[in-house]
Amino acid sequence: MSDDKIRLGGMALANGVLVHGPKSWACAIRTEDGRLKVAAQRKRLRASKVESPLLRGPVRLLDAMAIIPDIKRALPEAKLPFQRPAVIAAMVGSATVLRLLRSSRSVGPAAQELVSGLLSIAPAALALRGSDVAAYHGAEHISIGSYEQGKRATKEHNRCGSHLIGPLLATTAIGNTLAARAPAHLRGPARLGAQLVALAASTEIFGWMVRNPENQFARALAKPGHELQHRLATAEPTPEQIEVAEAALAACLELEQQ
Questions:
Q1: Fewer CB within 10 Å, N or C, the chain?
Q2: Helix (H, G, I), strand (E, B), or coil: what is residue 18?
């Protein structure tokens, strides 16, 4: 990406696309009667201002989550991917299995952490696959990628959050395995601390992966996320869905450039 391009992120909805930059966000949706609706606002929380490696990852996550209530206020018709009953059921089911797994003595710590990591991403994978979310996810990648590259991009993007899966699974497994060795009365805080450090570390690793795409280790870490994007989380969008994504992109860039 050239230096004069604004670094953008995004999220697919069940009926639209969110695009956000360092200072602002814009969301475009297609209503049930076929209308295109767009809302754009300045951000209240700006993760781009945070320089500490320990805080950058968690604050970026908070940055993305802080936008969601604003989207629902500005566009009540917006359908978030996690609103679907099947996704909520998957979240409850994963949490229940995780609780049982943690209390089991028949499964070793390393196996517990591996299974726990896979279970934790199941609801997100289901949310991305459902309804039109996968196609809007592809539209998001095509619109942002085309802006960055100056030519038509593919539905896979190397900065997609799915590429965090490899680093996050590895760092979470290591952190929770170490936390499990803490005294019983400190195990809860130790796990919480391990999760925060894992998020921070995986975000920094992800940044290194983006800067070094040809490195073999970076490609190995990105492989699970790329396969998830290619096979499950994205689909080829329709021209109407591309129109929605490009409307969100244009509105976000307009605010960013003011």
A1: C
A2: strand
Helix (H, G, I), strand (E, B) or coil at 16: strand
Range in 32-41, 100-109, 156-165 the model is least confident about: 100-109
Q: In sequence order, what are the beta bridge partners of 12? A: 17
Tokens 């998830």 sit on residue: 228
Strand 24-30 relative to strand 36-42: parallel, antiparallel, unpaired?
Answer: antiparallel
User: How far is CA 102 from each of CA 58, 106, 116, 192, 208, rounded to the nearest angstrom?
Assistant: 24, 10, 9, 14, 32
Query: What is the SS3 assignment for 44?
Result: coil
Structure tokens of 50?
């945070």
User: Is-contact 119 97, C-beta < 8 A?
Assistant: yes
The confidence score (pLDDT) of residue 75 equals 95
**Cβ atoms of residues 199 and 60 within 8 Å:** no
Q: Which residues, other chains included, contact 225 with Cβ-Cβ below 8 Å and sequence gap of 6+?
A: 160, 161, 162, 163, 164, 165, 166
Going by C-beta distance under 8 Å and a sequence separation of 6 or more, which residues neighbour residue 150?
none
- Residue the block writes with tokens 């992966």: 209
Which amino acid appears at position 218 of this protein? Answer: A
Mapping DSSP to helix (H, G, I), strand (E, B) and coil, where does residue 5 land?
coil
DSSP codes, 137-185: HHHHHHHHHHHHHSS---S--TT-GGGGHHHHHHHHHHHHHHHTTS-GG
* pLDDT score for 129: 57
